[in-house]
Amino acid sequence: MPIQRTLLERLRNPDPAGQRTMHASTSDILDSILNNLQNVLNTNQGNCLTDERYGLPHMDGIRDSMPLSVAGFVSAIRVTIETHEPRLSNVRVRHAPGTDRGMALRFEISGLVQDEDGRTNVRFETYADEEGRMKVK
Predict the structure, then answer these.
(1) What are the structural domains, with CATH classification, of the chain?
(2) Alpha-carbon span 106 to 99, nearest angstrom
(3) Hey, is 63 helix, strand or coil?
(4) Which partner for 134 in 25, 33, 41, 88 could form a disulfide, CB atoms 3.0-4.6 Å apart?
């Protein structure tokens, strides 16, 4: 099955002139995955009415028990992505501490996107800012 934008993306922005195609460009798919990661990683578990497991554990518990909690948070990010972003496979998450953001938690997320043109290795950088929001780029 061809890889596509999410259902909600297709409903919000249908193809122009009523064209119905099953092929989306790789850049559109990567943008879609980035947007989905931004959404899922910025939702606290228990806040989604249709799936109480959607999202990440609340950041307060993570920060209170640092640095011991980092490994558990890395695992939570990986499991969340594997569960809620099926277009990304072989997901790897690595804590990547940096000195440029003070107390911000920084992670590297990598994986594979398989489409009809082949496999694409992808890598995203994400960090939790001081207010607990996850920035994904």
Answers:
(1) 7-136 (3.10.450.40)
(2) 10
(3) helix
(4) 41
